[in-house]
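2024-03-11 09:14:02 DEBUG pipeline.ingest accepted 1 chain
2024-03-11 09:14:02 DEBUG pipeline.ingest length=285
2024-03-11 09:14:03 DEBUG pipeline.predict start
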Amino acid sequence: MRLEDYPKEPRFDAAVLSNERITDAAAEEVRELVLAIDRPDFEYEIGQCIGVLSEGPAEFGGSLHHRLYSVASAPGAGAGGKPEVTIVVKRCNYIDEYSGEEYRGTSSNYLCDLTPGQHLSITGPFGIPFKIPPDPEANLLLIGMGTGIAPFRGLVKHIYEDHGEWKGKVTLLYGAHTGLELLYMNEHRDDFTKYYDEETFEAFKALSPRPSWADPIAWDYALEERASEIWNRLSEEHTFVYVAGLKAIRDHLDELFGDMCGSPESWQAKKQGMIDEGRWVELLY
């Protein structure tokens, strides 16, 4: 589904409760915004997105921008009784390939510059949710890249804080070009630390071997080191795989899993079976 196909109505008013930078000063700027939705019956599920509406630059006609952002929280109301939503936003600027001029990303800069107490218009929620399997012995393989970590923050929190004792394995594979770009797994904010003592939880990082050369994220190393374990997990009928991040991650993972499976065709057949059973879900942008 194309971005322009997502409806801009109905719209809901949201107030900014907090806006915090969650990357170190040396890294790209990524901020976490907590919003209070002025609609008591606003409901969303983990893995879904909300839309944000913002006005474009006047020099470009001031057109209305509609962008989607993954929810990084589990559903719930705040102290004021209103539903609260957490989103993660990376400040983006673009270089015009012809003029060489730099332009500010409309939606990302609008959100990053908001201060507590300001209001904005949101839409949604949209997308297929990352549902917690009904069987507490089910395994989850969570693969995220960049801001794709957002829904897994809410999912892992919900599993261990709201869902009771979890007996299945929860494995998080998170990729970024450098350690400074890791979200919720850095010195500034390491939300996953609280789950490291859980026997069923494990987290692994996949980083670029030469980030200054813009080398790709080393998914092959991260997966190959535990290829046997991951393949055995995928072969079990109670394993669920959730993938979030840039669309480029899909081709890379298909290649790696195709090698594990013996051929690209065998892997696509297996993957399609998991999709049909609701055990493989992608949130890609």
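2024-03-11 09:14:41 DEBUG pipeline.report The chain has two domains: 3-125, 139-284.
2024-03-11 09:14:41 DEBUG pipeline.predict end
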